[in-house]
Structures are given as C-alpha cells and as structure tokens.
C-alpha cells in the first residue's frame, strides 16, 4: 500500500509519459490522437481526485496555509480544465493544438512540482503513515468514479463537485466509447 505522495507522484509521471508518447508520435495523427485522449483522460481524473480527497485534507490538517494552498491549486486546475476543454475541439497534431498542449504541460509541470515540493511534504507528517495510505486508497478509488473529461464550469469543491462528477460520468463514459486510446501494442512499444 503506497503513501498519498507516492500515489500522486505516480499519476504525475503517467501524465508526463503520455505527453512524451504524444510528442514521439509526431506525424502520426492517429497515434497522437490516441495518446492525447489518454493524457486528457488521466489529467481529468487526477484533478478531480485531488480536489475531492487531497485538498480537503490540506484544509483540515494545515489550517489557513492549507486553505491557501488548496485554493491556489484549484485555480491552477481551473486553468488546465479550460485549456483541455479547448483542446477537445481542436485537431490533434496541428500547430495550435501542439502549442496549447505544451502550455498545459508546462503549467502542469510547475503545478505538480509545487505539490511535490510544498503541499505533500507539509501534509504527510500531519496525516501519519496509516492515514496517508488510507488517503492514497481513497484517491485511487475516487479516480474510478471521476469524470474522464475536463468540465471547467463544474464546482471544484466537495460536495457539489462530487455530485456534478457523478452526473457527468455516464456522459463522459459514453463519449469515451467513440474515442481512440493507445492499444496494448502501442503501450508495449512506448
């Protein structure tokens, strides 16, 4: 059973890997579409998982500093959600798409680094080992029920975010049926 920090870092690394595969697939629009869909899917689920599980823990255990950090992180997530929503309407592999996606990834690198350097090192000691493991499980479980697309107009704090997410999930899952994702062979060759 992993700590909360380990679970979050693993997600961050997955995002970077999917983006790297997108970049490597330059010139192959089908592959780029599959990798960008996988990337967007992961980012959307990760953001909601943090907003439902991690940020309330920061607010509860870190006092005003935790509230301030969580609010800043939610603002940064909002920027990413808005950009992902724009990207869903663009053609994969175009200059505009690539530029917007690079902006998102640059922003995410900075945001993720801040979480790993500042937020999580403050939170983990307050949680303790067992509570951190429980939070990691909750984070992973929440991602299974989180929307798979960015919804910038949704609330970003529980309980309203949770309710909106549960309502959006079936629609997102239906959309996913019509999207292409990396095949097992593509993942093996990554």
From TrEMBL:
This is Hemerythrin-like domain-containing protein. It comes from Marasmiellus scandens. It comes from the Eukaryota. Coiled coil: none annotated. Pfam families: Hemerythrin. Residues 5-123 form the Hemerythrin-like domain.
């Amino acid at each position: 059973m992993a700590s909360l920090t380990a679970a979050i870092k693993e997600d961050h690394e997955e995002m970077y890997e999917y983006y790297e595969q997108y970049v490597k697939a330059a010139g192959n629009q089908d592959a780029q579409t599959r990798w960008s869909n996988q990337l967007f899917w992961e980012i959307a689920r990760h953001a909601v998982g943090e907003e439902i599980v991690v940020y309330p823990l920061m607010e509860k255990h870190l006092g005003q500093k935790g509230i301030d950090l969580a609010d800043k992180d939610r603002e940064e997530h909002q920027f990413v959600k808005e950009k992902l929503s724009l990207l869903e309407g663009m053609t994969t592999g175009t200059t505009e798409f690539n530029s917007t996606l690079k902006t998102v990834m640059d922003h995410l690198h900075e945001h993720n680094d801040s979480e790993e350097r500042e937020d999580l090192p403050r939170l983990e000691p307050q949680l303790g080992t067992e509570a951190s493991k429980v939070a990691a499980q909750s984070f992973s479980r929440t991602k299974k029920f989180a929307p798979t697309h960015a919804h910038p107009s949704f609330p970003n704090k529980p309980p309203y975010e949770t309710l909106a997410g549960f309502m959006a999930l079936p629609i997102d899952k239906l959309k996913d049926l019509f999207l292409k994702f990396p095949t097992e062979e593509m993942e093996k060759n990554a």
